[in-house]
């Protein structure tokens, strides 16, 4: 029998539960959440916090949304899961067709995955298998730019920032990839030419270029000029290299466009989606590709893509993803993201002159305050919680990516929580 008391539960958590990016046991106790509704998390001690993180950027509709709850319950009444090998079902078929209709032109085939990191693994496998099938087996490396983050499994780790990222521990173990410098916020013709030169110099080794378009997420919450995506598109096309966009964090409206690549009007050969795909309800990702990529793989020696997760195409996840996309279909998300953007700008801009702050940046429903030192995460988090806000700073960044249903009053509360975290951190 598990004890129900808050202190007992925290003690069990401390003894047995290993939390992300931390030691075992943890250096500080986590906050115990009892329930969540709308944009609020209710803690076991009775406090309510406005969620400034959308559960790591996924819960774009908030919590306990009636439409998503109903979709999940209805699908559970039919079937919760069935293997995807040799079988199919309506939720997956509908989701695939919807994603093809929503994504940039040319992406016609959908591979459903377990999580964002696995979606990137699948994208890399697609590129490597297709190049091999096209008679270019020497193209086994990937190219990207510094400052990126693509997940915690092995090949995605290899294209995360090799110095400032979270995976420097694995240097020498991971495949050695090709890196350009981090992309500047403004357009720099010299940097653009360096991208072209890099791709040309390594063309006989590189299977694909992979980047997060416009916004680099967990690698540093940096924004870059969309024109660099057009440069990459032109250079990869010229050399027969595939272009992969990792839109796991940026997809479904977060940057003010439905997909961040739309800021440049560019279509990739392979696209990775996740996080907000199910509105934060269940883990699900999707990797889309062009007929050229799928055709090469299918005609190659393997006869198909060498990947097949046990929970691929999970009906519950697909059903709630369809409901989530349905909520976004009316386009109202754009106005809501614009209101959040305006609120973040007005609330965070005064922090530009605060002690220790080096930059303030806002794009869509993303607000970032960068410090000149690493954040004291427990202190900064506690300061935000005292203001009724949940934030999760990392490295030198205190940031927010709130649910799209966050109103102006709660956006103001979030920015006040960020200000408190900056002062404490």
UniProtKB/TrEMBL annotation:
InterPro entries: Aminotrans_3, Aminotrans_3_PPA_site, BioA, PyrdxlP-dep_Trfase, PyrdxlP-dep_Trfase_major, PyrdxlP-dep_Trfase_small
Positions annotated to bind pyridoxal 5'-phosphate: 116-117, 246, 309-310
Single GO MF annotation: pyridoxal phosphate binding
Family matches, as PROSITE patterns: AA_TRANSFER_CLASS_3
Catalytic activity: (8S)-8-amino-7-oxononanoate + S-adenosyl-L-methionine = S-adenosyl-4-methylsulfanyl-2-oxobutanoate + (7R,8S)-7,8-diammoniononanoate
Localization (cell): Cytoplasm
Entry-annotated residues carrying N6-(pyridoxal phosphate)lysine: 275
Signal peptide: none
Swiss-Prot/TrEMBL site (Participates in the substrate recognition with KAPA and in a stacking interaction with the adenine ring of SAM) positions: 21
Listed SUPFAM superfamilies: PLP-dependent transferases
Main location class: cytoplasm
EC number: 2.6.1.62
Positions annotated to bind substrate: 56, 149, 275, 308, 392
PANTHER family per UniProt: ADENOSYLMETHIONINE-8-AMINO-7-OXONONANOATE AMINOTRANSFERASE
Its biological purpose: Catalyzes the transfer of the alpha-amino group from S-adenosyl-L-methionine (SAM) to 7-keto-8-aminopelargonic acid (KAPA) to form 7,8-diaminopelargonic acid (DAPA). It is the only aminotransferase known to utilize SAM as an amino donor.
Record-stated family: Belongs to the class-III pyridoxal-phosphate-dependent aminotransferase family. BioA subfamily.
Protein's UniProt name: Adenosylmethionine-8-amino-7-oxononanoate aminotransferase
Biological source species: Actinoplanes cyaneus
Gene name tied to this protein: bioA
């Amino acid at each position: 029998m598990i004890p129900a008391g808050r202190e007992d539960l925290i003690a069990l958590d401390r003894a047995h539960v290993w939390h992300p990016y931390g030691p075992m046991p943890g250096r500080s106790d986590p906050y115990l959440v009892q329930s969540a509704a709308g944009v609020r998390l209710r803690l076991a001690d009775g406090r309510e916090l406005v969620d400034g993180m959308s559960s790591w950027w996924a819960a774009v509709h908030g919590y306990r949304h009636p439409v998503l709850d109903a979709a999940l319950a209805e699908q559970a009444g039919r079937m919760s899961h069935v293997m995807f090998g040799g079988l199919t079902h309506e939720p997956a078929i509908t989701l695939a067709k919807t994603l093809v209709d929503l994504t940039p032109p040319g992406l016609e085939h959908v591979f459903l995955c377990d999580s964002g990191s696995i979606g990137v693994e699948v994208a890399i496998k697609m590129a490597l298998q297709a190049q091999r099938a096209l008679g270019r087996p020497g193209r086994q490396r990937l190219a990207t730019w510094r400052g990126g983050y693509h997940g915690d499994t092995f090949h995605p780790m290899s294209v995360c920032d090799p110095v400032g990222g979270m995976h420097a521990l694995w240097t020498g173990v991971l495949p050695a990839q090709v890196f350009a410098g981090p992309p500047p916020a403004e357009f720099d013709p010299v940097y653009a030419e360096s991208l072209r030169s890099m791709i040309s110099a390594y063309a006989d080794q590189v299977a694909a270029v992979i980047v997060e378009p416009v916004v680099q997420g967990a690698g540093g919450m940096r924004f870059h000029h969309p024109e660099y995506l057009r440069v990459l598109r032109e250079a990869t096309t010229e050399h027969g290299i595939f272009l992969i966009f990792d839109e796991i964090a940026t997809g479904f409206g977060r940057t003010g466009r439905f997909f961040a690549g739309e800021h440049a009007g560019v279509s990739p050969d392979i696209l990775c989606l996740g996080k907000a795909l199910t509105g934060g309800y269940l883990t699900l990702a999707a990797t889309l590709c062009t007929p050229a990529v799928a055709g090469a793989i299918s005609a190659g020696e393997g006869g198909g893509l060498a990947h097949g997760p046990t929970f691929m195409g999970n009906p519950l996840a697909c059903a709630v993803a369809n409901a989530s996309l349905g909520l976004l279909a009316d386009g109202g998300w754009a106005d809501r993201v614009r209101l959040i953007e305006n609120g973040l700008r007005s609330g965070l801009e005064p922090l530009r002159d605060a002690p220790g702050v080096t930059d303030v940046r806002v794009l869509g429903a993303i607000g970032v305050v960068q410090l000149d030192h690493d954040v004291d995460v427990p202190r900064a988090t506690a300061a935000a919680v005292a203001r009724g806000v949940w934030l999760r700073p990392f490295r030198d960044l205190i940031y927010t990516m709130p649910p799209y249903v966050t109103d102006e009053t709660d956006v103001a509360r979030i920015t006040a929580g960020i200000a408190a975290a900056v002062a404490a951190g």
